[in-house]
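Batch manifest line 946
LIGAND: iron/sulfur cluster
JOB: complex structure
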Amino acid sequence: MESKETNTKTLESTNSVARPKKVTFRSIGRFLWENKSFTIGLLIVLFMLSLGIFADYIVPHDAYNGNPREKLLSPFWMKDSNPKYVLGTDYIGRDTFSRICYGLQVSIIIGFGSVAVSLTIALVIGIISGLSHPSLLDSILMRLTDVQMAFPFIVLAIIILSVVEPTIGSVILVLGLCSWAVRSRVIRSSVMIQKESDYVAAGIALGASKFRIAWKYILRNLLPSLVAAIPLDVANAIVLESLLSYMQIGLKPPIISLGSIMGDGRNYMASHWWMTAIPGFVILFFVLGLNLMGDTLQKKMTDVSVKG
Amino acid sequence: MFGTIVKRILQGILVLVLVVIITFVVLRLIPGDPARQMASDGSAQAVEEIRAEMGLDKPIYVQLFEYIPKLLTGQLGWSYFQKAPVFDVIVNTAPFTYALLFSAMILGVIMGLIFGIIAAVKAHTWVDRTLSAIAVVFQSMPTYWVATMLILIVSVQWGLLPAVGYKSPKYLILPAFVVSIPIFTAVLRNVRQNVMDGLSQEFSRAARARGISHITILFKYAFRNSLIPFITQIGGQVGVSLGTCVLIESVFSLPGMGMQILNAVLRRDYNLVQGLILILAATFVLINAIIDISYSYLDPRIRKAQGGL
Amino acid sequence: MSESILRVEDLKKHYPIKKGFFNRQVGTKYVVDGISFDIKSGETVALIGESGCGKTVLLRVLLGLEKQTSGKIFLKGIDISTLSKRERKKTYQKLGMIFQDTSGSMHPRMTIEQILEEALYLVGDRDRKSQYQKVTDVLLKVGLDPAFRNRLPIQLSGGQRQRVVIARALIINPAIVLADEPVSALDVSLQAQVLNLFMDLQENENLSMLFVAHDLAVVRQIAHRILIMYMGHILEEAPSNEIYSNAKHPYTKVLLIASPSIAKGINEESFHVGLKVGDTPDPANPPQGCLFCTRCMQAMERCYKERPERKEVSPGHFVCCHLIDEEES
Ligand SMILES: Nc1ncnc2c1ncn2[C@@H]1O[C@H](COP(=O)(O)OP(=O)(O)OP(=O)(O)O)[C@@H](O)[C@H]1O
Ligand code: SF4
Ligand SMILES: [Mg+2]
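JOB STATUS: finished
ARTIFACT:
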């Protein structure tokens, strides 16, 4: 208390604490090395993405029309195989590998598309109800999320897909409409906590508008954890899409889905089990990769956002 | 406290009313109605007659206003295709679904608890890493695919367990196992994290310093601390698992509510769909209400926040 | 007499207590219950009171974060208590706030620069170039290297964060700074540094300040006047020296004794003080008589029945206690 002159004049020097990390190749490399499960996941996902995205250039055979003389072939490691068809052929002689590439393409589009839809709905509803919290509007929106969660997904999907024709667009909408509630709850509670925070109070005290608070303060703190949740949500959507196609409520031929490839094999399961097993393994690996990424991202994101 | 319970129950009822109305309206928007499927000769006249008999020729809101009072007096109506009261169909099928849900919950929770605690105690060893790897792989498997594969391997190839239908409780083993997988992985992760947090906390370390045995610390201190997050999570799992049950029943052709509902939707058996959705939604709402209430009872902070002090 | 910066008249903030299903109001919490004071230009007034007495709520009302139940707030003569947020902004009179929870008052994902620029932006200063310069200037003023501008709050130490928060209060060129326990969370050596910073600012910037603390020792060097707050009321108000040398209210004396560094200097005999066992009364159910009567060692029969009036015992020294009457008679 006594040495008044000394300390305020000497500046707090900057080298006492770590500088903010710059994103460099080295720092990315270090991150990948330190988070090996993330890296494995990333590699799997990149592999699957490139199979799907570049399907047109990769596929060795016509995925839509088969050669009936070469039907029901086994994959390469089995006796009855033909080196031309790595993963065998289906009951009308279509190349399974080619079909899987197109199936992945559809999975990717629907996975990311439906997550975009559900996240948008979740954000709008979560932010509005969180900001308006003790209000009629908030209660209405919360009951709406309750309603969504109370419906068994599969039933809701069947009902909606009986009303609208199952196309890529409508399946995206159905999946999006059936899976926003949980996220919107999470967003709402984060908004409610942030709303009471002193950093928001500091903004309001200086006259920040509601819109600015929502956009510059609350969303900014919300976004990283939402981004971290994307891989997990996409994984979920991919499984649900394949399920719909497997049960023949989802996409209809000629659109190829991993689920319908699996469904095609169902009638031959006892004798040709791989026809059901292989597409399942593809989904499993894709989803596994996404989950591995998502787990790490979520851990990293919550580390910062909880406390400043 | 009492106010909270009443409020929660009224909220639940409101949700169910909304579920009923939405189902009612959407069902009638689906092209194709039961009359067309029921008319034996398929003639337009026969269809019209059946429609008139069932009241389907009236505007939707009129039908709704006729349906709701019936519902309130407990009349769920008649299933056109089962040729039985909806209530009877539910009574006959619900036990399968609840038995499946219940046994899967038990199985998943117990496995998750055991392996979660093991993983926490052996944190950061190869045991833990293996368990975590298994959990993430299990979590990534599409349940309906696992169900199909299990039927193929366990029933068809090995002939160990019956595959489809229901004749004895044995028929529940495979489906229950499949439904329990997501529960198992979620519980394992949750328990591992919470017990680890508990073990690293001050009171656990102090207890260890006082020479209290490892097992006692684990169950008396660390585990008790993770009870609240654990219970909340189980509540969330019940909801998700109910959906899985509906799905898995149809893969295993278990004659439960899930099987019924899928067929009923496809056949436009309005009253049956309506009744089954109501029961499933009510189960979900009820379980979550119970969880919420017991949660607020366990954690006074929540109780305060809800009761407005 | 210098210009009045912040004048508060009989300010009250009551919270309804709601219960049950219909959220019926079952009572009222008198958190701030009739507070008046006047802060002059260049003056630092300390507001002292124990935890939960309503200090933060008072500041939140002053900031407009919460609407007062009744009473008036004059900022440089303008009654801002009746103004809407937008009208408030138009007066161009700004309040600089230092929140009690330093870390919590900074957005965890904004850099120091963004936090400070946001404050400028909100008060209407939107010129990027001058913003940059102002951030540099204010960081230097609070004793931080301007290179800190690109850090996130989490990358700073506690003392550095405190300086950033002070910088945010200063950068908008406020009429007055409201500081909510700005040093309570810091360890002793850091407390001294930050207090010195405030003293520099008093000297160089003619800073007016309402400085909240729960401990009399902290404000000894920087406060010109001290208000003693208890359960939403001011029990004693006096120039700083008067409080330390000639406190009248039993509660003030308890607070003095509670700070060892001050207690040493005073003759304990003259203060037969102490606290009766028992808790602070519930703000929803304040005692009918003197607010302090449940804990006051000198409480008399009259104290339980009758609220003491606010009396001026010497120029600028006000006390609410029946003992004053006893002394006079
Ligand atoms: N929004 C609110 N609704 C109801 N009561 C409130 C509200 N905000 C604060 N209170 C009550 O007002 C009282 C005073 O709180 P306040 O935060 O002002 O105390 P304080 O003097 O700042 O204490 P501390 O030194 O611990 O910061 C507390 O009893 C608190 O419970
Ligand atoms: S009025 Fe009575 S109870 Fe209150 S402070 Fe004075 S002496 Fe104590
Ligand atoms: Mg406070």
